[in-house]
Each structure stands twice: as structure tokens, then as C-alpha cells.
Design goal:
By secondary structure, this protein is an alpha+beta fold. The protein has a domain of 86 residues: Macroglobulin (MG2) domain (Immunoglobulin-like, Sandwich), CATH 2.60.40.1930. Helices cover 22% and strands 32% of the residues. The protein has a five-stranded mixed sheet, with no helix packed on it. The chain is elongated and about 115 Å long. About 12% of the residues have low confidence.
Length: 146
């Protein structure tokens, strides 16, 4: 190969590689999903929010897969939806997706933690005789030795 043929081949390879790298699926979009807080216990609330990243989508569907939570919002402006984790939710990680007519975001994750253990303190009872015995010790005269 002569000098110019090699140069043309290198330039063609670089252009082809750049085209492959910049290709994205037709439904991919820049942006993402914000889940806040990202970790909650059953019965607690969390918020899913985002911006107008799906320009051609007038409506977006927000879904928390596995928990039966979904909501629709307008996709032409910033949006925010608050959900409550069902009380019977199992501790696990759940994908949060946002999809519209021409875009889908799958980068949201919600972690449901185990509910805090409940502790029950048994009431204590003290009899009158026990109280009298404690009072006698407190009121006793000091004993001197020595």
C-alpha cells in the first residue's frame, strides 16, 4: 500500500468506528430517573422525578415493577410522582422505568428494606411489700463499724 492509500484507509476506519460508537437504539434518550430516597421500608413514601427528556412524548408512564405501582404524567416538562410502598412489600430491589412514545428510561432502582422490628416492653408491676422493703433499706439508720 502506498502512503495515500494507507491514510485513506485509516481515515475511513476512524469514521466508521466513530459512527458505530455514536449509534444508539432508536428509543434511547439522554437523561434519566431520580428515585429519592432510593431505599425505603414498606409503608414509606418515595419520589420519582425527571425532566422533559422525551421531547416527542406528551405522556410518560412511570412504573415500579414488582410492586404494582404506576402513574402517568405529562412528558413535556419536568415531572415528579410520589408513591407509597405497599405495607406487604418484600425486601428486594425493584426496577423503576419511565416510558413514552419514543423513549424509555430503565436506570431507576428502588430498594425496599425489611421493616424495622417492633419491640414490645412488658409492663412491670411492683407489689406493696416490695416497695416497703426498698423504702426500709433507704430509710435505715447508717451502721458504723469501728
Amino acid at each position: 500500500m502506498n502512503f495515500w492509500t494507507r491514510r485513506i484507509a485509516v481515515v475511513a476506519a476512524v469514521v466508521a468506528l466513530g459512527s458505530l460508537i455514536s449509534m444508539a437504539p432508536a428509543n434511547a434518550a439522554s437523561g434519566g430517573i431520580d428515585v429519592n430516597p432510593a431505599s425505603v421500608a414498606p409503608g414509606e413514601t418515595f419520589t420519582v422525578s425527571g425532566g422533559p427528556d422525551c421531547i416527542k412524548s406528551s405522556e410518560l408512564g412511570i412504573t415500579v415493577e414488582g410492586l404494582g405501582l404506576s402513574e402517568s404524567v405529562s412528558g413535556d416538562a419536568a415531572w415528579e410522582v410520589t408513591f407509597t410502598v405497599p405495607a406487604n412489600a418484600v425486601a428486594d430491589t425493584y426496577p423503576v422505568t419511565v416510558s413514552g412514545e419514543e423513549c424509555t428510561f430503565t436506570d431507576g432502582v428502588l430498594t425496599v428494606t425489611a421493616p424495622a422490628p417492633t419491640t414490645t416492653v412488658a409492663p412491670t408491676t411492683t407489689t406493696t411489700a416490695a416497695l416497703a422493703a426498698k423504702a426500709a433499706v433507704v430509710n435505715a439508720a447508717p451502721a458504723f463499724t469501728g
